[in-house]
Design a protein that fits this description.
Layout lengths: L1 H18 L3 H17 L4 H11 L5 H22 L2 H5 L7 E5 L1 H5 L6 E5 L5 H7 L6 E5 L5 H13 L3 E4 L4 H9 L3 E5 L9 E5 L2 E5 L2 H9 L3 E8 L5 E5 L11 H21 L22
Parallel strand pairs: 1-9, 2-5, 2-8, 3-4, 3-5
Antiparallel strand pairs: 6-7, 8-9
Length: about 290
């Protein structure tokens, strides 16, 4: 399709342009591009509504400042994407400034685990960083544009990451876990009627149940953590202790575990809200009647 070809051409041009700049210069260009996206109102109403739901106690001006910072950060992440293999393999201290709690993940080397974070900070870099510790596979939803999907998949593979397509990849996930791989998943966007409803910023949100169900069914721990950008452009990474859920994959256990990792993500977002992806309609799906709101 002509539209797909144009999108792929634009993506290649963006990646080539940012790679032509030194990494700090690329961050500056990305921030400017993100600010432009904010200025023209790209998904602004969605983001403003999300922020009002999440932070009703904050003044409109404060929420506007969070959103402006978020647009700039989205632009920086887009600029970094083009050089994901280079950044993932950079020596410690150059791109990732500090790592906290590394011992929690090192203790799980060679043993299958589910890696959890959210659409928070440069989460692709967060996941790619683990390649220096243990084989890791990303569970990803293929993009609608196959040409851009090929471009993105190539970057992930060159960063050392394995790829398992979302949907139809269940056997591959269990095989990866049995082989001692870590499987990285995100579960912080609206799952429509296929999700479970758990609290998120004081209201029920449809949330993917996959990571919780897989961890319970396979009997593997959840490794969670977050990446945040410093003022100098580098990143800090926090690794948290492994969480081994108990009990089988009953509906009650799946909901409880999903609520647990969603609550942990909310804590992190409250710490640095500009890092989370506010441009998605997180509360799009209303909960069933008699389930609260």
């Amino acid at each position: 399709m002509k539209a797909h070809a144009l999108e792929a051409l634009a993506a290649r041009a963006l990646f080539a342009g940012t790679r032509a700049l030194p990494w700090p210069g690329g961050l500056g260009a990305g921030a400017a591009l993100g600010a432009l996206a904010g200025a023209i109102g790209l998904r602004r109403r969605v983001a403003e509504s999300n922020l009002a739901l999440a932070f009703p106690e904050r003044a409109p001006g404060e929420r506007a400042a969070i959103l402006a910072a978020h647009y700039r950060e989205v632009g920086r992440i887009a600029a970094e994407y083009a050089r994901l293999p280079e950044l993932a393999k950079a020596p410690d201290g150059r791109v990732v400034a500090e790592v906290h709690g590394l011992e929690h993940f090192e203790a799980q080397r060679g043993r299958g685990a589910i890696v959890m974070t959210g659409h928070y900070g440069n989460f692709e870099l967060f996941g790619s960083y683990f390649t220096r510790l243990n084989p890791i596979d990303f569970v990803v939803k293929p993009l609608s544009n196959p040409r851009v999907e090929t471009l993105v998949s190539d970057l992930r593979r060159r960063a050392g990451v394995g790829i398992i397509p979302l949907g139809g990849g269940l056997k591959r996930i269990f095989r990866a876990l049995r082989d001692g791989h870590w499987v990285a998943m995100l579960a912080d966007q609206d799952a429509r009627r296929h999700g479970v409803f758990v609290p998120f910023f004081g209201r029920l949100a449809s949330t993917p149940e996959g990571p919780a169900r897989l961890a319970l069914q396979a009997g593997v721990p959840i490794l969670s953590g977050f990446i945040r950008r410093r003022a100098d452009g580098r990143h800090d990474v926090d690794f948290e202790p492994a969480y081994l859920p108990t009990g089988g994959p009953t509906e009650a256990n799946v909901v409880a575990l999903t609520a647990w990792h969603t609550a942990r993500l909310e804590q992190e977002i409250r710490r640095a809200p500009e890092h989370w992806f506010w441009l998605h309609r997180r509360w799009k799906t209303a909960p069933p009647p008699n389930t609260g709101s």
